Amino acid sequence: MLKQLALSAGVSLLTFTMHAAVTAGIVVVTNRIARHTGHLHVVARLIPLLTVTMVALMIAHVLEIALWAAFYDFAGIVAPNVNSFEFAFENYTALGYGDAVPGTGQRLIGPVTSLNGLLLIGWSVAIIFEVMRMAEVQFEQRPRLGGRRKRRR
Fold first, then answer.
1. Helix H segments across the chain?
2. Is residue 138 within 8 Å of 34, Cβ to Cβ?
């Protein structure tokens, strides 16, 4: 049991590091995009900002799932009727069809994979909301042409 927890904690740390690197990349790229799209309407700004963010996060999640699958192969964790990537994907997303269960002595890895995936998916949601907030805040700070606008009621 402790061996399973220690090994899966190591994989979790690797996925957290991968996600932190992707987050840093998203921050750099979206700040650059935001500087170059400051004159555009908020919708026109959000399209490139969210596209870059979503593509980067999807790639990150697939790579993190692939890391779990590689770990499953390395550790000899086999579930019937699925390959290691499918099994890792099912666990990472906490989907839990229930038809793929590893053998005795390996059952803690799945829940740890699920916890890891849920944490990283939550982290991704926070990144998406921050990018949206950044675009909206910068849109509101734009200088207005012709003085102050009247509010419509």
1. 2-36, 42-75, 84-92, 109-140
2. yes
